[in-house]
């Protein structure tokens, strides 16, 4: 059973492929510990720093939640999350990245030449606990295009 927001990150490559508007679709997954529970010194340091960033993020999100329909639950949600990332070992953040080149159907060779270098990237992050106790998701989208004089 999945609690919280369902992540669509793993579906993005298929959605891009099904659209037939993208080529060179590359998806990668990165994992980062939250907290200093790792035994390897570098991972331990990274986990410590990442937890500190997630504490700042949780406090910021609490303020956002206070202004919306979840205001009555904002304090409980933030405190529960902060408690878990401080106390429970084994929490990992997973970041999915997807990069693809846009090429529309029926695109002429001249248009393809102009579009060369156009790309789309999406970063999706999920924070999960092994027992499914909470889930935090965020996403970003950044299209980019190189424009050449000609």
Describe it:
The chain has helices at residues 12-19, 41-66, 74-87, 109-115; strands spanning 22-33, 92-102, 119-128, 135-144. It is built from four helices and four strands. Helices cover 37% and strands 29% of the residues. β3 (119-128) and β4 form a beta hairpin. α2 (41-66) packs antiparallel against α3. It is flat and about 55 Å long. By secondary structure, it is an alpha+beta fold.
Layout of helices and strands:
Blueprint: H1 12-19, E1 22-33, H2 41-66, H3 74-87, E2 92-102, H4 109-115, E3 119-128, E4 135-144
Antiparallel strand pairs: 1-2, 2-3, 3-4
Helix pairs in contact: 2-3
Short note summarizing the structure:
The chain has 150 residues and is of the alpha+beta class. It is built from four helices and four strands, in the order αβααβαββ.
Amount of beta strand: 25-35%
End-to-end span in angstroms? 55 Å
Order of helices and strands: HEHHEHEE
**Helical percentage:** 25-40%
Backbone CA Rg: 20 Å
DSSP summary: helix tally: 4
Can you summarize the main beta sheet? 4 strands, antiparallel
Low-confidence stretches: 126-150
Q: What would you call the structural class?
A: alpha+beta
Overall geometry comes to flat
Number of strands: 4
Strand order of the largest sheet: 1-2-3-4
Question: Mean pLDDT, as a whole number?
Answer: 76
Q: Please identify the oligomeric state.
A: single chain
Properties at a glance:
4 helices; four-stranded antiparallel beta sheet; 37% helix; alpha+beta
């Amino acid at each position: 059973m999945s609690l919280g927001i369902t992540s669509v990150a793993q579906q993005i490559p298929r959605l891009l492929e099904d659209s037939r508007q993208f080529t060179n679709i590359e998806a990668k997954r990165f994992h980062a510990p939250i907290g200093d529970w790792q035994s390897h010194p570098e991972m331990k340091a990274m986990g410590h720093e990442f937890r500190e960033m997630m504490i700042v993020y949780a406090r910021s999100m609490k303020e956002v939640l206070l202004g919306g329909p979840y205001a009555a639950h904002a304090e409980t949600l933030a405190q529960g999350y902060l408690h878990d990332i401080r106390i429970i070992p084994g929490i990992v953040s997973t970041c999915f990245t997807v990069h693809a080149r846009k090429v529309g159907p029926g695109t002429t060779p001249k248009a393809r030449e102009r579009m060369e270098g156009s790309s789309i990237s999406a970063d999706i992050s999920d924070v999960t606990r092994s027992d499914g106790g909470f889930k935090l998701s965020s996403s970003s989208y950044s299209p980019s295009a190189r424009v050449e004089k000609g």
